[in-house]
Every structure is written in structure tokens, then in C-alpha cells.
Design brief:
Number of helices: 18
Helix content: 40-55%
Mean pLDDT: 86
Largest sheet: 6 strands, antiparallel
Order of helices and strands: EEHHHEEEHHEEEHEHEEHHHHHHHHHHH
CATH topology of the largest domain: Beta-Lactamase
Number of domains: 3
Structural class: alpha+beta
Shape: flat
CATH class of the largest domain: Alpha Beta
Strand content: 15-25%
Strand order of the largest sheet: 8-7-6-11-10-9
Number of strands: 11
Distance between the termini: 43 Å
Low-confidence stretches: none
Length: 468
Amino acid sequence: MMEGCQVIGFDWRYLYVNDVVAIQGRVEKNQLLGRTMMEVYPGIDETPLFVTLRQCMKDRKSARIESEFTYADGKTSWFELSIEPVSEGLFILSVDITERKQTEESVQQQLNRLKSLRAIDLAILGTTDLRLTLKTILEETKNRLHADIVQVELFNPGMLVLESIATTGNHTQEMETLVCHLGDGINGKAALERRTIILDRIDEDSSADPFLSAVIKEDARAVYSTPLIVKGNLIGVFNIIFRTAFKADQDWIEFFETLAGQTAMAIDSAKSFEELQRSNLDLALAYDTTIEGWSHALDLRDKETEGHTLRVTQMTLKLARLVGMSSSELVHVRRGALLHDIGKMGIPDNILLKPDKLTQDEWDIMQMHPTYAYELLLPITYLHSALDIPYCHHEKWDGSGYPRGLQGEQIPLSARLFAIVDVWDALRSDRPYRQAWAEERVIDHIHSLNKTHFDPKAVEIFLQTINQ
């Protein structure tokens, strides 16, 4: 972990900088020394960062903050800053945490999308009133995809037209009464070709296209249309409209199409309770796909454990089946195993990725990750039953574990099984600070922790499984 070191004088001049500071600031070292922060970075004195620096300089106090820095080209980076007053002014240590922030943002986005899926699920289950269900879907879509207008059109197979059934966002009355022919315009083309159509640049000369003509009156700059299909049958089109230029990435498009899939299911399930039950399976798959993406984001951050999550999940499920867990319990075990280290999102990179032995203070912070997992997942109702592994997999049979010091069968069974598998897989994998252990040595180590760290019955089942 490279740290920038700099000393800022009372007149805000750079008195000392190391090479890392120059790299982080994207300037030459000689362009920093002797010059003020305001000369090097015009406008920095108007930022929240400078407010903190000014306060530390004035009050001669320390501070530790995370700050976003904007470069001249508009690009940004995140830094963790440790600020200390010294006789010359301020001494500042800086660590680039941009990658961690991006991962956190990605996970938070996944979490928000998961909440939207759940809200839509509850709307579908809670009423057979299609109008109310579509209102929830459109509002969730508008909020999560940051759209200006969201619209659903139903396909009329007799007339071969698309008819607006629901619209949300600030829009004209014309959007409520639109009727478009199949194959005409972006929405008609999406329906006819059964694929997502993107128009991120709108031609003003579109008077012959009723849909685009209406969209232009909304001052739109980008339109996304995707078909609503259920059991191979076209039932409508899902439209999203932006009043500012917008280009979606693949992840955004996939979530848009997931929401469209839910919309299609909601429309169809309003006609058939049996189809409603079938749609629940698709929703569950959407949840689990999101969780898997979330888990993958964690593996990417903690590079030394890539692939670890899927391996321990598969082995834990195998043991859970052997001890007689039901199919519904296995669903929660799988989700908990996939999210077992979600709490590490709250651990700073300089601790999580440190190749050397942690100090006691660093270890105390690291031991907070099960608690962070509990706090992160608790607000999500449908993940309550999956909390056992993320929250309890570091508890030990003799009560010496953390975070709560649970003992024996106070520890949930799924967490007791997972704890063994987690150690087994970790020791069999290469790490930056050691090579993978031989299988025999790993087994001996697990034997040595029997009745202290691990549930003896769980150890017996585990050893029988790997010896088969």
C-alpha cells in the first residue's frame, strides 16, 4: 500500500512531498514544492477538504477523513487522509482508496437494486390490482435507473398496436394516450424484433413517428425500449426516457431488462394466480443472481481469495444436506455462504490487503466485519434467515470466538459447518504470504482444532465427506 507523505506550511505551501504525492496529484514533484495548494490546484480552497485542513491548521488538531478529489480533466479519485499538526504546519498521509470506493458503490448499487426487486415482489404478491402494481414498478424503475419518464405500453394483437397503460414522471397528457403501430419507431421496433432498442441521440425530424414525436415534446435526449414477453408471447413494451444525454453500460441494461421481466410477469399474473406463483421462482432467481454478483465484487476486491466464495458455498451446501437441512433452509445457507464476508466492505484496504501480520489495533478493526455484515444485511427482510453465516462464522465451539463469544450449540449449525469449510479452503489455497498447505497437513490442523474451535460432530461429518 503506497502512502503519500506531504508537509504543508502555514501559508499553504508544499514544504515536502514524496513521489507518491506527485503520482496521486498527477503533477510533477517540482511543480509542488514551494508553491501553494491554491496555485497548484485552483479552487481547492473552496472544497470540503480544505475546510477540514483549515480547521486542523487553526486548532492544531488531528483528523482522519475520506475525501474525493477532482482533477482538472474532471476525473476523480478518492483518498484516505491522516492529518497531523507539526511545527511547520500540517503533515498529511494519503492513501488512494478509489478502487475500494468503486467496489462499495457497486455493492450499494446492487443492494438498492435488490431492495427494488423486493419492493416489486411485495407489490405483485400484495395485490391483484394491476394499476397499483405498475405504479410501484414504475416508481422503483424511475428511482433506481434515474430516469425522467417511465412508461408501459400493452400490445393489442387484434389491432397490432401498442397502447399506453401506465406512465410516471413529469410528462404531458399525450404520453398517456399514445397508440403506436407494431414495427414503427423505437418502441414498435423493440416489440417487433423482441430485443432492447437504444436511442441515445434523438433526431428532431421525427414527425412521422408518433412515439418519437411525443418524446421530443418531452425534451427527451435518450430513449430505451425493451419488449415485455411472457412464455414467448409479446404483451407490451417498457420505455425509459431521459431528458439529459445518457449512455448505459451493460450492467444497467441487464437490470433494466430484469425490471422489464418483472413488469411482464406482473401484467400476466394479474390475469392468473397460477402464473403469479410461477413468477416467484423467476424473482428468486433474480435475487440470487444479484447476490452472486455482489459476492463476485467482494472476491474482486480481496484478490487473494478469488474463487474461494463459490468453493466454500458448494462444500457447505453438501454438508448441510448431509445433516438433513430442508430445501428451504438450504436456500438460506447458500445465500449466507455467498455473503459470508460482506462485512469486509467496511474494512479499510490498508488493513484488509496488508500482506504482513496485523497490529492489535488493526486486528480489532478486522474483527468488526461480522458485525458490519449484520448491520448491512439486517434491513433486508428476506435475508434475515441468511444472517447466521455472515454474523457467526468466526464464533468458536469453546466460546473464544467473535463477535459475541457464542459457545457450543449457541452457534447456529450452518455457521458451525461453514467455519470448518472456510478454514479448510483457505489453507489449501496459495496466499501472498504463504503457499498452500498439503491436504494431510490441513486435515491434521482441523483435527487439532476439534472441540476448541470446531463442533466435533461437524468435524466428523466433514472428514467423512472429504474422505469419500
